[in-house]
Specification:
This protein is an alpha+beta fold. Helices cover about 20% and strands about 30% of the residues. The two termini are about 20 Å apart.
C-alpha cells in the first residue's frame, strides 16, 4: 500500500500539517517557523511517526526539519520501510 499524505484543515490560519498512515503506523509532517502562526521551532518540515494502536508520543524522524515537504515525505517513507523490515524480523 502506498502512503499518501493529506493536508489537515486547521482552524488556525496558516498552520500546515499533513498526515498519512500505513501498516499500523501514523505519520505527521508539520511546518515550523521561528515566528508567526502555527508551530514554532527551527524553520522547516518536521516529520514524526508513532504506532496507531498504541497511546504513546510521536517520535521525530532524524534529519527534521527538512527544507521541503517532498524531503519530509521521503524520510517518512524510508522510516516506514525500516519499520516494516523490523516487524518482519530482518
Amino acid at each position: 500500500m502506498a502512503m499518501e499524505f493529506s493536508r489537515v484543515i486547521s482552524p488556525v490560519k496558516d498552520m500546515e500539517i499533513w498526515t498519512a498512515s500505513s501498516d499500523g503506523f501514523s505519520f505527521v509532517i508539520s511546518y515550523e517557523s521561528r515566528s508567526g502562526p502555527g508551530f514554532h521551532g527551527h524553520a522547516g518540515f518536521v516529520a514524526s511517526w508513532r504506532p496507531i494502536d498504541q497511546n504513546r508520543s510521536a517520535i521525530k524522524i532524524g534529519g527534521s526539519p527538512f527544507k521541503t515537504l517532498a524531503e519530509a515525505e521521503e524520510a517518512c517513507k524510508a522510516m516506514l520501510g525500516h519499520l516494516r523490515r523490523k516487524l518482519e524480523g530482518e
